[in-house]
Amino acid sequence: MYLLATDWFFIIEKLILIALVVTLSMIVAMYATYGERKVAAFIQDRIGPNRAGPFGLLQPLADGGKLFFKEEIIPLASSKFLFVLGPVLAMVTALLTSAVIPWGSPAVIAGRTVPLQVADINIGILYVFGVVSLGVYGIMIGGWASNNKFSLLAAIRGASQMISYELAMGLSLIAVLMLTGSLQMSTIVQNQLDNGWNIIYQPLGFLIFFICALAECNRTPFDLPEAESELNFGYHQEYSSMKLGFYLFAEYINMFISGVIMSTLYFGGYDIPFVNEASWGISQNLLAFISFVVLLCKAFFFVFVFMWIRWTVPRFRFDQLMHLGWKRLVPLALVNMLITALVVLLLNK
Amino acid sequence: MGITQILFWILTVAALFSAIMVISSKNPVHSVLWLVAAFFTISGHYILLNAQFLAIVNIIVYAGAIMVLFLFVIMLMNLNKSTEPLKNRWLQIVGIVSGGCLLLVLVAALKNTEVSKNMAEMGTGEAGLIKTLGRELFTTFVVPFEISSILFLSAMVGAVVIGKK
């Protein structure tokens, strides 16, 4: 009886949505590696990968194939289970965040309104924040289980960096929460559709969030956990084959997802800028698709900025990184939070 | 048996198993990771009680921050080898007996209390949602809440002062 009472359409709908989101993240991550190399080539006045397929478009597939067929090495002295767990955790935490993102305006399938969001939980932002704070385990476990001094150093760097920048990130998020009055991602997007994008009210908050996102993704100028010139290859030095691939892939997925989250929190989510799409009179499904593409474009823009920064800005020293995190960003985020709170309080009266 | 009940039993077994593994693992790093797993199962219980805010805060604060610091310290101290000193056998027996006594007292004390008769509200309670919690914290419990935050602040300042010495 119980099984009959379950809303099977709902379950199937969510399963399909999850599969789609995961596939999308994977494909985007795959082509982000290609994009990274092309952007790097453009900035350094080179051509970049152009051998596999037209414009080198098959390069990610070739790279993936190479990683799969490489020899898998597990160091004898390390804990085998944890050594494998490290990249798995990195991948899982990278993919988990996508669950609460509203990917587009609701579609209508067979007379049912299907929201393009896997889970609209009422603690959306905190969920993102929680998963981000777990992201450090992949690096720490992998680095420790490698039983290599360089890897361990890199893991410890990564952990301290992520914990430091989480603080400023959380504080800048609180300002967004105060504007919206809700933690729900769909409410945050709806609020921006009605009142204009959050970036107008929170430019400083966005800047802090963006810097922290760079640090959480371990991208240059915060790529100290994998600083090649100091630590050989960082926390994934002992990894080979697809386990290394998982770590590299997870970084690109993180980049893409943080781009999506920045667009959702500050740039109106799936909102199509400068137009009133309700007056177009097109079908809801088409509108859902267009809004989804708009969200993707915003996210790709941020991914491009991440790459741009990587190939133009040199790496911080570790003390500079800590100085920036604790003595600049945290006080700035606090001031931003207080000013936002004051303004919200005064305007609501 | 509803899906809530099935999940409850799975989570309970997982919570007890990981809690036991915390104290029985030889390697301290494994202990910490099992403790993280235990926090996750407890968060699962919170979600079953519809206390989503408590669940996610539990993960952010304990699994995401405090356990990372634990792991940090253990990795730096290089406790890979089991350096636990061998204890006297009599000491172990005394430990088991006194622990058993404590368990007996706790079970005896809680057996006939009101708590055991009140079933938790599965999936319907509002106590753990952020709205309810926030309202309670900033109206009914505002004084203890602020005092405890001052306590945290003083602990932080104290740590910095000691660290500067």
Commentary on this structure:
The complex is a heterodimer of chains A (349) and B (165). Chain A is an all-alpha fold. Chain A contains 14 helices and two strands; from the N terminus they run ααααββαααααααααα. A two-stranded antiparallel ribbon of chain A has the order 1-2. In chain A, a hairpin with a 2-residue loop joins strand 1 and strand 2. Chain A starts with a helix and ends with a helix. Chain B has two domains: 120 residues, NADH-ubiquinone/plastoquinone oxidoreductase chain 6, subunit NuoJ (Four Helix Bundle (Hemerythrin (Met), subunit A), Up-down Bundle); 37 residues. Chain B contains six helices and no strands. The interface between A and B is medium-sized, with 25 and 25 residues.
Short description:
By secondary structure, chain A is mainly α. Helices cover 68% and strands 2% of the residues of chain A.
Helices and strands, with pairings:
The complex is a heterodimer of chains A (349) and B (165).
Chain A: H1 2-5, H2 8-43, H3 59-69, H4 80-96, E1 107-109, E2 112-114, H5 124-134, H6 136-145, H7 149-180, H8 185-195, H9 198-201, H10 203-216, H11 228-231, H12 241-266, H13 284-310, H14 318-348
Antiparallel strand pairs in A: 1-2
Chain B: H1 3-24, H2 28-48, H3 52-77, H4 89-111, H5 130-138, H6 142-164
Keywords:
A: 349 residues, 68% helix, B: 165 residues, Four Helix Bundle (Hemerythrin (Met), subunit A), 2 domains, 6 helices
Question: Largest protein interface?
Answer: A-B, 25 and 25 residues
Taking the alpha carbons of the first and last residues of chain A, their distance comes to 53 Å
Helix content of chain B: over 70%
**Structural class by sheet pairing and helices of chain A:** mainly alpha
Poorly predicted tracts of residues of chain B = none
What is the third-level CATH name, the topology of the largest domain in chain B?
Four Helix Bundle (Hemerythrin (Met), subunit A)
Number of strands of chain A: 2
CA radius of gyration of chain B is 20 Å
Low-confidence regions of chain A: none
Helix segment tally of chain A:
14
Q: Strand-and-helix sequence of chain A, N→C? A: HHHHEEHHHHHHHHHH
Assign an overall shape of chain A.
Answer: globular
Structural class of chain B: mainly alpha
How many domains in all of chain B? 2
**Which word captures the global form of chain B?**
globular
The termini of chain B sit apart by 60 Å
Query: Which range does the strand content of chain B fall in?
Result: under 5%
Numbering strands along the chain, what is their spatial order in the largest sheet of chain A? Answer: 1-2
Share in β-strands of chain A: under 5%
Number of helices of chain B: 6
